[in-house]
Amino acid sequence: MKNILIIANGRIGEHFLEKINQKRVGDNSYVLVAPQDMALPQKVQVSLEVFHIDPTSYSKIRHIYNSRDFSVVYIVLDSLEESGESMKNIRRLDSRVLIVLLDMWDAFKKLEHNSLYILNSNELLANRLYDFLPGVPVVAKNVGLGEGEIMEVMVPFGSPFAYRHVGSIAQVKWKIVAIYRNGKQILPTNATMIRPQDTLLIIGRPQVLDNIFRRIHDKEGMFPEPYGRNLYLMLDMDYDTNKAIKYLKEAIYLHNRLEHTTLVVRVCNPGDFDIIKEIREYENESIYVVVSYDNCIKDGVLESDFSKYDIGMILLSPMTFYNNNLSVRIYDAKKLVYLFGKENIEEVKRSIVMMTTNEEMEAISSISFYISEALELELCLCHYDTDGDFNDKKIVIEHYETLSHIFHYPIKIEQKHVNPIRAVNEMNNVLNILPMYRKMKRISIFSI
After folding, report:
1. Of all helices (H) and strands (E), which one includes residue 307?
2. What's the gap between Cα 375 and its chain centre?
3. DSSP, residue by residue, 351-403
4. How far apart are CA 211 and CA 204, in angstroms?
5. 3-class SS at 6?
6. Residue of 407, 415, 347, 354 whose CA lies nearest to 387
7. Contact yes or no for 273/368 (Cβ under 8 A)
8. Contact at 8 Å (CB) between 175 and 151?
9. What are the beta bridge partners of residue 249?
10. Pick the residue with more confidence: 272 or 102?
11. Torsions phi, psi of 367, nearest 5?
12. Virtual CA dihedral for 52, 54, 57, 60, nearest 10 degrees?
């Protein structure tokens, strides 16, 4: 059993005693030093012994203190002089006991001691008032380190985190540990979808959580969030030499359309210095060119770049993507992939989403709207079936129609009794949006 000494008076002291009595922390014995008019709980449910003595009297406090071994001493007084004298008396009796002191006058800020904890009432009230401001994250101040490593964030409509599966969000140095929805707690899996007005309980480094909070509430330049903020053009000169400038111009076009992003150009295996010189001429304050004179693709440089430059989408040629077997590494890093096609992105007028499984369609739904809106493309949900069976995808279609209303962006639904591969093969000037698989084979719809 631990002995706790409480030196208190006033309304705060009375509320503190009531809280102790209600919670009934086991194995604690309390000794209270308080004036005669101190209101005590009507029905005492804890071990409590009361002494009505002067808290500033050293001899009287010594008589009580020397009869017990106290673990903690609380000083909750409404007088600056009494608080100071009481603390001095306790320190004369015991230099190592933990003292928890209520400071209502900003008078004890400069005191530093391993066994002294100052509670500044003005700062606590100001922090609590601040928590109610719109757009301010709620952090756990008395849990863990108490530095904000646990945070509660509400997901607003239009957030880049809305309608994303938890598993699709790279959580480096932070983690979504719980979701609160409609008054219920959800312990998320990778397949759990985040919805608007969900409250996320996240844990991680305080600086990282501050950044995540801003990202959740950032409605400008959302794409490619939450996968990352910037674009990464990878040019492997073993395969991309002849089209390097074409790919760079296309990447710059995407960079200009996606505001608030930086374009990082990583050049690997260079052999033509004239091309490198031409690429560097495009550098500016928002376009970085990094040249590696070796095979940087195989030595972990990519993963380092993803973290260093906060990369959300990787742009590369199909040859670089498939010949270097990058699908596993990019999938595990949870990044978006843009593969260059034969046509220039500036010529594309329409984006298409080919119907697959319900889970995959939900996973790419919000991305489809974000990229289509950013590039001003007509968005089309294509349900092509050789058997003409269109009834099994009603839930998916309703999901996309709901997002269309939320994003205020139109979507065209196409249902045709045709072979989907053949239909896509006949299309021109389209951006094909597909789910990413961990192992992508060259023989896929991407090769079209």
Report:
1. helix 301-308
2. 26
3. EEEE---HHHHHHTHHHHHHHHHHHT-EEEEEEE-SS---GGGHHHHHHHHHH
4. 11
5. strand
6. 415
7. no
8. no
9. none
10. 102
11. -60, -40
12. -10
Structure tokens at 447: 């090769």
The structure tokens 């008019």 sit at 37
DSSP 138: E
Q: How far apart (Å, rounded) are the C-alpha atoms in residues 96 and 52?
A: 26
Alpha carbons 187 and 206: distance in angstroms, whole number: 22
Return the axis-axis angle of helices 80-93 and 58-65, rounded to nearest 10°. Answer: 50
* pLDDT per residue as tens digits for the range 348-368: 989 999 888 777 888 788 888
Reported as half-sphere exposure (CB side, CA atoms, 13 A), residue 212 has a value of 30
Instruction: Please compute the mean of the pLDDT values over residues 369-381 and round it to a whole number.
Output: 90
What is the residue type of 361?
M
Q: What is the pLDDT of residue 441?
A: 61
Question: Distance between CA atoms of 66 and 446, rounded to whole angstroms?
Answer: 81
Structure tokens at 416: 């045709």
The answer to whether the beta carbons of residues 343 and 431 sit under 8 Å apart is no
Q: How many residues does the chain have?
A: 448
Please give the pLDDT value at position 446: 46
CB-CB contact of 334 with 227 (8 Å): yes
- Provide the 10 A C-beta neighbour count for residue 437: 12
Tokens coding 233: 């053009």
d(CA 98, CA 432): 64
Report how far residue 220's alpha carbon sits from residue 408's, in angstroms, rounded to the nearest whole number.
15
Residue 265 has pLDDT above 70, yes or no: yes
Q: Which helix (H) or strand (E) holds 425?
A: helix 420-425
Structure-block tokens of residue 299? 């030595």
Dist CA 13 CA 19 (whole Å): 10
* 158 CB-near residues (< 8 Å, 6+ apart): 196, 219, 222, 406, 407
